[in-house]
Amino acid sequence: MKKNSTTYQFGRFGLHHLLPVVVWLAVVACVVGLFYKRSQRFEVLGLVQGRVHAVAAPCDGQLKIVCVDLFDEVTKGQTLAALDDNLVSAQIATISAAVEHLMAQLIPTQEQLVAEAANLETTRVGDQRRFYVDAENARLRILELRALIASDQITLEDLAMEVKILQELVEQDAIVPYELERVQAQYNSLAKKIEENEHLLKQANIDLEQAQQRRDEFAQQQLQHPSVDAALELIRKEAKVQEKLLEELLVQRNSLVVKAPVDGIVIQIQANTNNVALRRQGEGILRRPGEVVLAGDPILTIAESGPTQIIAYARENQLDQIREGMTVELVELLQNRSRAKVVHSQILRIGPTMEQMPQQLWRNPNFPEWGQPFMIKVPPQMNLIVGERIGIRTL
To answer: Which of 72, 157, 250, 349 has its CA 20 to 30 A from that of 385?
Structure first.
């Protein structure tokens, strides 16, 4: 009985001392787990960024007017400024004077061309009539020869009958042979004449065909004015040159009116780092009318009204903890941490090189820091301001 009581007291005493040890081990395990989990995640600061557009002068010139002021809202296509266009206007006036000079040269040229055209038309009518007359003359010549041949053939037939009769009379010694020889000579002469006229008739037919062909070919020809093209060629070329110069000046004049490339808000001109110390008070905020600008000099800067991305930087010991498509938490940097908004977002892209961080993200403003940049998508449910810092941590 005493032995059982001793065993019970010992077991109760051991359990009473073992419970704190178990609790302590559990706490240690939790702490170790938290430290391990903390080592597997990182926390960095990111910078909310938006697109900024520098509106530059398209050419050398003097600002004539600036239509906007600092922090004005502008819309795409809105006129922002205009450069002095006196030089372009003078050049356009010079082109107008050159065109008037060409028009003045065209008046006597036109009169000369009209006179030449009248002469050419008169010559053409004369040539056309000549071709028609040649064809008609050939046709009449054919008719003349045919009529002559027909008449001679009738006479030849009569002489042939007379020769035959005289031959019979000579055989009967009714007449002397002289009469037969005389009529026979007339017959032979007329037969030769008919033969020659038949050759002339063939040639006349050939001449008629050629005359008709020349007449038809001439009728198909268009009246050409080589002198017209030669006279106008110089004026055409000079007018083409003035036309191209005018187009160039119109494009240049249109470029003198500077318009907003996007919707946004006018902000201060972004200065180069090396030139900041050289700027005077108030210089570089906006260009003002009367200032002379060179091509490419900024006139003003437009910032899009909403943020477009968040840029953060991973330090060297965090490079293996980020990847594209990774989900992260965005935490607003508020004074009251209990009301800080936490929103999930995603890493879109990761930069290929190490870069110097913006000064706003340095832990010590006296010591620059470097990191690998990565871009995070801006969640629509967060009302962020361009340039604002935001906390970023992994899940």
So the answer is: 349
CB 76 within 8 A of CB 261: yes
pTM, two decimal places: 0.50
Question: Which portions of the chain are predicted below pLDDT 50?
Answer: 1-3, 8, 10, 13, 36-40, 226, 272-283, 336-337
Q: How far is CA 390 from CA 12, 242, 314, 318, in A?
A: 56, 60, 14, 18
Task: Let me know how long the chain is.
Answer: 395
d(CA 127, CA 224): 14
Backbone angles phi, psi at 391, to 5 degrees: -80, 145
Instruction: Return d(Cα 81, Cα 288) in angstroms, integer.
Output: 9
Q: Residue 67: name the closest of 300, 291, 305, 264 by CA.
A: 300
Closest Cα partner for 326 from 384, 374, 382?
374
Name the phi and psi angles at 370, rounded to 5.
-125, 155
State the CB neighbour count (10 A cutoff) for residue 159: 20
Nearest 5°: the CA angle 106, 111, 115 is: 140
The span from the CA of 214 to the CA of 188, in Å, is 39
Q: Which domains does the chain show, CATH number per domain?
A: 40-52+305-394 (2.40.30.170), 56-83+257-303 (2.40.50.100), 89-235 (1.10.287)
DSSP codes, 122-150: HHHHHHHHHHHHHHHHHHHHHHHHHHHHH
